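Summary: Need help interpreting a holo structure output

Steps to reproduce:
1. Submit the protein chain below together with the SMILES for zinc ion.
2. Request a joint structure prediction with the ligand placed.
3. Inspect the structure token block that comes back.

Expected: a single structure record containing both the chain and the bound molecule.
Actual: see attached output.

Input attached:
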Amino acid sequence: MAEPADPFTETLEFDGDDAGYDWWRNSHPDGFVLAVRARKPPMLHRASCSDVDRDVHPKRLKARGARQICADMKPALRAWLAREMPGNGKLLDRCPKCGP
Ligand SMILES: [Zn+2]
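--- attached output ---
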């Protein structure tokens, strides 16, 4: 049922693949990154935000429990959140820096 190429549902995760993650952010400047954090609600960023640059914040972004979920469209990240973190409800922070 899932359409792998549908931008409304497609999400990507580059766990342990910093080069792939950098490439995706650079080639999707209009995309979004959901920064999953331990013990805090996930925070939504624009792909171009320096807060989700692993070179700038390696400790925070590679911490235990930290994940970065990439998508072209915000609804894909909301769907991911509802699917992967159902206990978290629809709780989501927006980055005050990049204003996604
Ligand atoms: Zn941001």
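--- end attachment ---

Reviewer comment: Residues 12-94 form one domain. Residues 45, 49, 51, 95, 97-98 surround zinc ion (CB under 6 Å).
Status: needs-info
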